[in-house]
Fold these 4 entries.
Entry 1:
Amino acid sequence: MTHTMPEKKNLIVDMQPVGRRVDISEGSTLLEAAQSAGVGLVSLCGGEGWCESCLVRIAKGEINEPTQPELDYLDEGDLSAGYRLACQVKPKTDVRIDIPPESLSTPQRLQIEGKDFEIPLAPIVEYVDLELSPPTIKSLRADSDRVKDALLESGFRNIRIELPVLMNISNVLRANKWSIRAVLRQGEVIALLPKGMGIFGISVDIGTTKLALYLVDLSTGEVVDKVGEMNPQIAYGEDVVSRIAYVTQNDDGRETLQNALISSLNLLVQEVCGTAAIDQSQIVDAVVVGNTAMHHLFAGLPVEQLAFAPYVPAVNEPIDFRAADIGIEMAPGAYIHLLPNIAGYVGADHAAVILSTELWKTGKTILAIDVGTNTEISLVSNGSLLSCSCASGPAFEGAHITNGMRAAPGAIERVQIIDGEIKTFTIDDALPVGICGSGILDVVAEMKAANLMDEKGALIEGKLNIRKGKKKNLEFLLVPREFTGHERDISVSRTDVNEIQLAKAAIRAGQEILLAKAGIAAEDIDEIIIAGAFGTYIDVPNAISVGMFPGIPVQSFRQVGNAAGMGAVQALISLKHRQLIEDVIKDVDYIELTTYEHFQKEFIDAMYLR
Amino acid sequence: MTHTMPEKKNLIVDMQPVGRRVDISEGSTLLEAAQSAGVGLVSLCGGEGWCESCLVRIAKGEINEPTQPELDYLDEGDLSAGYRLACQVKPKTDVRIDIPPESLSTPQRLQIEGKDFEIPLAPIVEYVDLELSPPTIKSLRADSDRVKDALLESGFRNIRIELPVLMNISNVLRANKWSIRAVLRQGEVIALLPKGMGIFGISVDIGTTKLALYLVDLSTGEVVDKVGEMNPQIAYGEDVVSRIAYVTQNDDGRETLQNALISSLNLLVQEVCGTAAIDQSQIVDAVVVGNTAMHHLFAGLPVEQLAFAPYVPAVNEPIDFRAADIGIEMAPGAYIHLLPNIAGYVGADHAAVILSTELWKTGKTILAIDVGTNTEISLVSNGSLLSCSCASGPAFEGAHITNGMRAAPGAIERVQIIDGEIKTFTIDDALPVGICGSGILDVVAEMKAANLMDEKGALIEGKLNIRKGKKKNLEFLLVPREFTGHERDISVSRTDVNEIQLAKAAIRAGQEILLAKAGIAAEDIDEIIIAGAFGTYIDVPNAISVGMFPGIPVQSFRQVGNAAGMGAVQALISLKHRQLIEDVIKDVDYIELTTYEHFQKEFIDAMYLR
């Protein structure tokens, strides 16, 4: 007789009410199960247990005992009712779980999670409670002098009170019987609140497609809520270039796009305030990131020049202005801080990625890639930081693809071709209606693995599900109409494959040029960090297979979610981190790919599917 | 034969097209002639020849040769066409002059002149012309960095460019082919203009009744234009107290009053820009003064607490904010500076009076009195400065007087009763329709001199034109209906006389209490400065006669016109003067009359007409 090691069991997780089942191996968490099934379970902290957002109810099956984070967050009643945090739960048997609506991301799946971090709480704002004596005929000081004198007594210096706070000072002091909380920002009193009232900040990541907003308690540093929404500017153009064109072609274009964005952000602010039961006047600081065009459109800066070589921003350095200047509804005197841009197409969002991934601190060789319509790439090696931007196009957003669509319910987000059997997985398990970015990447990788096309992307007649489509061009039938939600075939054309080739080639060429510039080979890379929404959902082996990334070991990849949003949160809770990234950005060596002599060659090389 | 000294001739000045004739003695100027005739000839500099606003054409008669100021300002063509400055011309014979419309103040006569001053030009703003190199593929700096680097090269330090200027930076740089004028305010770039373009500032005096706006060339310090207008807030209340009541009683009251004011000021800005053929973007700085309530309503500050004891302002210290924050149309990044207030009813306008009259510098004993609905009084003696405020009421504005009216055409502004003959003089020589402030003061003084009433103000039956009016009360018929513009009698009742008694008593009591507080007798006063619109038009001997001022020699009085406006101009062209008045104000000892034990006694004493 010989001993055999106990094999890891395969377990089934049945998720309700989304109606999705997934196989996991023992030791996996419910969060991982949800992620592998494409169920949009909100997880801000990336599974560390502190964001408390992935709450689920265990309906059936055996699981581990509650962990410390769960004991910290859930009370006895919650636990006895079966509530647990999905990231902390490892099933021991097949399980069925109920996912409450608030734990699911919005129907349009948005990426607002990110890896966690621990940095000391030291925001730009400070606060102090004051007991003032009211004016009398013997004490005729103006209201502002009364506040300033009390702050001086509390040890504050160089105190300023400016118009937005002066506008309400008399009423606030009297309504609160001279008992107030003063919030200061580098000597300026930016808010006067009732004594003891909580203070909060928001961090915002403005993507071309999606907005993410985090509410942070500035007395604890805790992220208390996060919400997402589509960028309403989509109505004026799907990508950055078409939005700049809209601004160029319409007299009030800049204002229109800015107003659309501000309105949506104000709704998100209202939403988090409602959930947290706080007033907007308690939001006393904000940090905003976005690509350079979004950054400029948010602040109302000119973008026309971003459409023409040499694509220079109006401003790169970090800027601060009052929220009221652009109509964001916060405390009357509150400011907004925008992280620095690096170049016309490497914006503050990438600066935030660099900040939250601590790229500059490492002694390793790391590529950080934020995949989007525009893909920003940074390479850190030997203590130097190179950045570039590639026009990867909207194919990964589902655009310019025959049956492409955004990551919404019914989108095919995962595809497998195994032994001639085609399996598709859709968001929310809905009947398939189209293919989103991660799905189209999977299709191309799987078609290649199944030898349905050559290395140029030409489909091969006679192979599995390859047929003549419109205009007699070959196409790959992915889902026949009878299995779809709209009763039309879902297929993939050679043009679709070429769109993906163009996109992945641009991204790969950018990586190769940074590596060449630094004199480094792909094998020398210690880590590839993939940030951003799309980057979170892609199948890394498939991405390697199509040549989007160099073929280094899969375990060297790190999918960090919304690292830009996390960077914005860090800059909100730590003034030092604002200064840190400002300094780091000054040393970034920006490579303008269009002027790089080898770019064309690298790009064409990267087109092949080998 | 004996020699006789040549007697001063009486000469006649015939003013057209206003159709007014006036007798002057030889040696008087045309400006003095116009003033004595109540013709609203604009004279900002008070007759020193540098404001160039009192331009007239000599149609007939002999006059002096052109003076140096005239030679500096008028060219050969002007002079040969007969154009001269009224303040510089002393007729040798009877003359006829044409007054061009632009030299006439608006139909509603407004006080926007003031005594001149000479202070070095050193405004808060500086400017420099820059030639930038445009961005190229080898030079990818952001637009703002390009400007900052050029400024660094020009020796500027701690340069900041903020949102309002960033919002247009890319367009401005390109439209001007990278050749620009940068305007800076303490390191902040507040405007980017085409290279070489002139820069201007505005000073504004916001009276409860009237607005005065001065346009100043900030490259020379010269006042290039001045305009006046009624304060549109009059529609919401004639005096400060009723406007505060409006704000208290209406949810959007504060905003309504602020918007009305801002709209009127923007029209004045447009007017001076049109006249000077400049763009509003060339106006890069502003200084604003007003009484505390006007100051607060202009800036959008709370005023409700000003209506209740102890009447404390929201803010006393000088404040600065962007013009754009309240909607004043100037350069996008321009700031507005508000001089400090002293107390709830001694505002920034009085601070400006103290500044322009240099009260604190003198070794003399001086009373400075700014007569209005609210009258502010300062006494400087032995190096200390006392200030107070008296509720003198609107009688001197023509309100609460049976036939009272504002200083508009047809208002009786001067009255003489000589040997039983009643003579009245109206503004613009129009048919009389009512009595304005200086007229009603004259009436009371002349009635008293003609013994038509007793020292309590009771009219004496049987005396000149004293008759029974409505409800059988005695009244003095000033102008019978057949000589008026509206065919109704213009008369003065005992109630009218009492209104003037109340007003002058309040003003006199304020003076007496300041004198008592300083331990000074009226005889010790070296000078009484009368500032403000009404103060310019009153007849000083008559004002002494009714007891409004102590009976010190007439030559000790100085009528300085709009000293508040002049203080605002000084603070505009000299940063040092802003700091100066801020420091001076800190040492002002404010006396709250309502808490002063002798106030009632002084007030009742001052009611008598002795």
Note: The first helix of chain A runs from residue 30 to 36.
Entry 2:
Amino acid sequence: MSEPRFDITSLQNDRVKDLVRLRTRRDRDRAELTLIEEPLVIERALDAGYPLQTLFLCPPRIAPEHKELVDRLLDVVGLECVRVNEPVMDKVSYREQAEGLLVVAPQVTRDLASLDLGQAPLLVVLEGVEKPGNLGAVLRVADGAGADGVIVCGGGTDLFNPNVLRASRGAFFSVPTVAASLDTVLEFLKSHNIASVATSPVADHRWDEIGLTGPTAIVLGTEHEGLSGDWLAQADLTVGIPMLGRGDSLNVSTSAAVLLYEAVRQRSSRKADPT
Amino acid sequence: MSEPRFDITSLQNDRVKDLVRLRTRRDRDRAELTLIEEPLVIERALDAGYPLQTLFLCPPRIAPEHKELVDRLLDVVGLECVRVNEPVMDKVSYREQAEGLLVVAPQVTRDLASLDLGQAPLLVVLEGVEKPGNLGAVLRVADGAGADGVIVCGGGTDLFNPNVLRASRGAFFSVPTVAASLDTVLEFLKSHNIASVATSPVADHRWDEIGLTGPTAIVLGTEHEGLSGDWLAQADLTVGIPMLGRGDSLNVSTSAAVLLYEAVRQRSSRKADPT
């Protein structure tokens, strides 16, 4: 007799029910787990050595270009593999088109002390970011600009929301992401001589008027509310990005992009040469 | 007898069915109409003098902070107002929480010749952008940076998708948006002496090494494919944004933000003064 092709074929299976429950934050946080689904994001987690717990695999759905990734996953020591059929995959997937892979991974929380800071760290502090997609988009641009970490402050942010991981395109696994209170962050920045540069529509400086080559934390608020008075009062500098059209703000990830790449520009030894 | 409070209370009303149909592109394009729903976006359309055809209004849903907007709308000459009850509003709204306003507006298409170009125009050309949210996000940052227009090229883009308007936060109405073929765009740029600056991961220059103070069109491709060979071969310059982390690209709106604000920086008379 041949082996059964699938470990799970019933939508009523308890593990299927457990997986579906992990779509809600309360259940993810209680189980201290998260879900990773996009092949690219799973690959980034693997590359970063992030611990993975269980792989739900639907072999009929695996596209040829993802076979190598599946082989890498099957080689991970301690990663349980559960083969499921297509109806089960569709049920547990949170994407519209399930691509045959779903990984359950532990929530690995980090604290500020664990940040690996070089001589002139470049950090991003986000206050009150609510939408997982926005946090993910900031992580992606922070990765692009080589930032040393993203600190989420103000509580309530669902760091391990699968949409954070997805929107970050896996940058979640390469850019250390830490949640901490305002007081803790301020103390941390001061004790490490990291200048806090807060963005504000009524700022003292233009974004390109200040030096960003030293240890710097770029502090961004929500689109609607901006930064709290606490941050604005306690930041070392306030900077504004000019709004030259009709709108009054940029999205938080585009604001982060403008400031982070201004830091990259200033930090680069190659000089701008406008012709 | 008092006037009836609502013009439409039946979900079976033909106008309700017509409105629901406008959620699909085919029906929007056939009717040459689009839908605007967020109060802020409606306000921007009003500010820009964009023609509006019909206002579907659900008075019980109007929040106090939007009453002034409703008054402005009711003053617009030629704008039909249809009062609907809450079940009808929920049915026609494409948002989860209908806020009591939905405006039907004509699709006003523009061509390149209609662009109002100053001495040193700053344009964005997007090739093959598919997601309405991405186009909207680019429009928002183009508005912030004071760009003179966004040209969408490569066909297929659903310019009047309500999600373009929404994601743009109304910048769709302040930044002229034009669809045109590659050949038409190239000819237009050449005839107006506008330098095309194409982004590429294998570029000749860093983004901050080239002059962006003259007439400039920043050309961006899709995240997955990048720009086509045609654009890369025919652009005047290619520039790259360094990717210093693990990811290999930025989102198109963050790429646009980095390049557009580098142009703003260079064009500003105030000089950067890194300390």
Note: Residues 112-267 of chain B form a domain with the Alpha/beta knot fold (CATH 3.40.1280.10).
Entry 3:
Amino acid sequence: MAHGAEFDAIRDLLAEWGPLASGIGDDAAVLDVPTGERVVISTDASIEEVHFRRAWLTAEEIGARAAAAALSDLAAMASVPRGLLLSLGVPESWRTSLTQIARGVGRVAASVECPIVGGNVSSADALSLTFTVVGSALSPMRRRGAKSGDIIFVTGTFGGPGAALGALMEGRTPADAHRRRFAAPAPRIAEARWLSEQRAVAGIDISDGLRGDAEHLARASEVSLVLNGSSAPRVAGVTAAEALASGEEYELLVAFRPDELPDRSEFERRFGLPLTAIGVAVPAGDDPVVITDVGVEPGGGFDHLRR
Amino acid sequence: MAHGAEFDAIRDLLAEWGPLASGIGDDAAVLDVPTGERVVISTDASIEEVHFRRAWLTAEEIGARAAAAALSDLAAMASVPRGLLLSLGVPESWRTSLTQIARGVGRVAASVECPIVGGNVSSADALSLTFTVVGSALSPMRRRGAKSGDIIFVTGTFGGPGAALGALMEGRTPADAHRRRFAAPAPRIAEARWLSEQRAVAGIDISDGLRGDAEHLARASEVSLVLNGSSAPRVAGVTAAEALASGEEYELLVAFRPDELPDRSEFERRFGLPLTAIGVAVPAGDDPVVITDVGVEPGGGFDHLRR
């Protein structure tokens, strides 16, 4: 893209974002975080043909989904978003869709009150959206921190993105409920803050799949997790094993001390989402994650943990 | 790139960076900035065939140059680097060069004491390096802040990158001195901090060319700049007009009040670089930048400003 065309593209983006885009015009953005809070920062790329295909999503969905995926990393750290920066690689064939992409980004950023503070636009062979998200927290939630005896919870309902992706890869039309979870994930920012305030001791967002991210938390915390594979709520039409493998859920997996469990009905009332106990941390064994009872109906395990 | 290959690539990068890479392993990096300082953040992409060609540079130079370009935005804001994140798009044909790219990134990051705190790796059709750089400053330098009567200075010696790029585009071998300035720019972090401490009132780094970036500063400050086009030091073999147009210099252009000029010999002693008065700010006119006396030898203008 010629230099002038880049400026035109940036002008289109800023017009779409309006007051949501702030402080743009210097070589860098300037942000303030409350005194005593730590800065939390992550970068995340969505690339056409690697992370999504054009035929699967509208331009607005592509923007929204990529923004949600990036902001989910701030949720994983129980941080308040302070700003995002977007580096766009734009092929000529996408140029006219830029405003819709920006609309999707803006909608998700606005939903978590995250100003858009910078970015850049380059020409490219494939559409790419590289987000940097900046947040802050007094005490960011970490993957490490779970101890043997802790109870493991997840937010939300699993399996939709995996089922939708499976259908799309096979050229089938995904079920509406599955497609919605795939195309319009929500970063669980407010949920994570609440869970952290309720003394969650470790957490992660579920991007690689419940099982895979449980492994990440287990390794960082130097424990093993025993999970009841069928106790995580799941969308209609998926098996427990599919729900455990489904990636890009952007739900949260968190650990609580057994004597400081969160009030799940309060969580559900506040956020309209289930919060479900799915397992327990045990001393580190050969396998970081052990799945038990696949096939048992949700609620069949860990019922003694409900309160 | 398959998930496992991405992990392998990340392992190679971390092995190359050693202790320079810190705090990696959570969903986001956690940084602290000194109490009272503001967070300064910028994102910058270098894409093969857009910003560079493979034949022009070694892999290590590609990494170093892209890192320097990104960190230069922190220099432009007179900020102390606190961390950088690198999002890499890596085609299969570049996979074996990743360690050398990382070496170049690491060398430049270490030169300004900037830890590498996060990033990600994706497969891609073209090599791309998207950096996010985070710094802090009590009072970040801005493009705005120059007033009529201010004296405009630049660091360094101009024209090298433009001459090298011109030669490369025409298939010629650039002169060594030109190529060095093109392939191995240095972010002027320490220089910018010193200039800011000496009461520079506005500043910008020179990525689009001295003339172009002077325009950016003039517009942001709502003044016009009258520049003596031949007074900026330049490398052998380039004209004053070529020096004004040469981009990717990553030198600094700063404004000082006429009664608070910096000690240029002290600057040159500290940094081994010239600091040169090249013009003056005047009330905003039709043209944000007016070039005078192109063709006059360096030092021919603004001599009355020297001290």
Note: Chain B is about 35% helix and 25% strand.
Entry 4:
Amino acid sequence: MTSADLASLPLDGQLAEVLAACGRNRERDLADLFRLLAQPSISAQGIGVDECSELVRDLLERSGFAARIMATPGAPVVYGERCNAPGQPTLLIYGHYDVQPADPLEAWDSPPFEPTIRDGRIWARGVADNKGQFVANVLGARAWLETVGELPINVKVVVEGEEESGSPNFPAFVAANRDLLAADLVYVSDGQVFETHQPIVEFGNRGMLYIELVAHGPSRDLHSGNFGGVAPNPAWTLVHLLATMFSPDGEILVPGVLDAVRPVTPELRTALDAIPLDEAAALADIGLTEKAAPKDLPYYDRLMVRPTMNIAGFTSGYGGAGSKTVLPAEARVKMDLRLVPNQDPAVIYDQIRAHVAAHAPGVEILHHGAMEPVAVALDSPLAAPVRRAVEVGFGVAPVDVPMVGGSLPSAVWPKELGVPAIVVPYGNADQANHSPNENMITERFYAGIRTSAALLGAMVGQNRQI
Amino acid sequence: MTSADLASLPLDGQLAEVLAACGRNRERDLADLFRLLAQPSISAQGIGVDECSELVRDLLERSGFAARIMATPGAPVVYGERCNAPGQPTLLIYGHYDVQPADPLEAWDSPPFEPTIRDGRIWARGVADNKGQFVANVLGARAWLETVGELPINVKVVVEGEEESGSPNFPAFVAANRDLLAADLVYVSDGQVFETHQPIVEFGNRGMLYIELVAHGPSRDLHSGNFGGVAPNPAWTLVHLLATMFSPDGEILVPGVLDAVRPVTPELRTALDAIPLDEAAALADIGLTEKAAPKDLPYYDRLMVRPTMNIAGFTSGYGGAGSKTVLPAEARVKMDLRLVPNQDPAVIYDQIRAHVAAHAPGVEILHHGAMEPVAVALDSPLAAPVRRAVEVGFGVAPVDVPMVGGSLPSAVWPKELGVPAIVVPYGNADQANHSPNENMITERFYAGIRTSAALLGAMVGQNRQI
């Protein structure tokens, strides 16, 4: 946004000064980010995680936070706080300093851990997911401190190092540190906006239940000529079981699973219809011309209103080239169900277990993980300052996204701290997180800094209203 | 069998002499077999095939046959003949000199290509499949020659080198050499008997149709959170298609596929019921207590009367440990159908293709191979001398097996030569062909030599009766 745009917004005098300071500190802010980007921190491979946690602590300290590294059974958590605003609300910023592995290295146009600017973008592993996003939020607070001398509200920062490995220790960490982390709102910048580049505010995400069904046949793979017709085939067992669980029309058939799905209120309908959509382009990008059944369901209802039952993997017998005449000993199907409010993954699991027991009693069911769906009300009182901050930071009013299709372990915040989390992704649509050539449009990094600075101002006086 | 048993059979005087000679030549016969066993001949890996074909030619020549090596586009065929019995019938002996790969080598108790005798068995890769079996047939003829000075009938021997690779060139070889191979009966020793050790005479085998169904979804694997509900899942497409093809009750549902299945005649019923069966033991050996649906179908009807529709492989999405949330781009199922007389694999393929086009028009169907089912009438005139020869060779009357569950390319004999093939397996039930520690009970090798010697005698005067 130009300074003319900024001037047209009715900014508090102090915030205007802070934003101006952000503009003057662009080179230093970028150097602070590059220092983190140059440090590999691959949790899946245990590479550089401790070193990176120290860099994050240093950044927090240099930004005026009292910071420390806190041990977990896995990678350490970095915690910082500056709570010198008595009577004002507390904002908890969440991020993660670990990154995905960078391979295949040969697919990168520049080395993943040598950050560089090219074509108006920062290129580095982890720049979007998540270093460039949480660092922007820290630097927005620093701008307040350096300009005004103090933060206008209380700010806590928690940065974990195992998000890319499924955050195995983080929920327990939060539960064990409820008082330390107590806040009025959890603010998370992660993920990406739509192709339009318009900023968005995310109010929740789908939950998940991940199961595996295992059908057992003979004790070893058999010759299908010598035993075909005699031995039951476990792949057929699963095919017939699965056909009772999900219809060709796209309906989940397991009794009870849909019972708790929240109805679409007029307010939710309006929000869904307001999300930008170029459906033909979205489908073309994944090589499709038609959506899954039922064909007439609106695009975003599929991601935000209806649960899914997805086959993530089906494995049985011979999968190589050509032919092999085997009657397999085993068949396995991995499934994830994306859950919407107010489905409870524990209840859904029991319903599926009962269904499997009734239809294919020999089939084993494994539980590979669950996350509860989370939804923050679109009219939550704390949504207003967030929307206002994004508008100030990006110069464009954001779109409300009631629900993200993916699943995040964000139920930990309402469950353990009693507060919601609102997510504002700073990443561009083509950020290529988890892929080679991960990148972040440089101006989006700076807009993120401005957004978090604006959020601190906008939250003044907004205590405990959720 | 003891010599007392032998004496009790009304043997032709010459045959008695020949069988006595077999008894005197045991050490030399074993050495001849060991020479072939020591030569690796793995067609799948192109190892030692030419060298082995020369050893087979040498054995045939040393046994009194005019032998030569005949080129094919793949491994050579060894052909030998001794046709000095004008007016007498011609027997064509078929075998294969190639063997399965021997890995995993560490699972063998003695090296696979260092034949040895232990516990009354010969241990070596290929001893049962098929070197020990076709060599026995050659040596039975040699005993006639050495004892009487000539063979009582005309004998041709054809030994191919690609059977373990699916005989890709053999049918064309037979078609191109109809006159050379012309015979009254094709005699094959391959495979194994039942656990009872009782000899069997096999009158046919199931055919096969091997297809692959490929369902296409999005153009790449997708994140099931970001796209679940939007993109059609090809694994679900196949599940729903497959459920229309084969019922939970074990019935093939594709229209027309069962139309040509031959009815069970009283004669066939009698033969089926006469086959030895310890069903509980057979099931226990493969870790089962129950047969596939329908449960009340007799055991051998499953292998000899009814066709099967087997899922040999189902592959889609993630098959590793734990969980991965992917919406797969593709799903593949490999299927073999074991066909019975008088099903035609070409007709069945068209019926399945029409069914797939009607139910899942986007699903691709691949044809990976077909073999026609073959059945020789149980009352075929040439069955009598074969049964008689087996009784002489093994000292026990054989059981008729109307059909073998597996599939062999044996339709080539009636189709190209106009004659049937009768199969008499010399291998023991636990021969472990295709596995480590392949073996053949030593006495079964010698019984095989006696059987083929007896067959030459029993066929005298049995011309063109099929």
Note: Chain B has 16 helices and 19 strands.
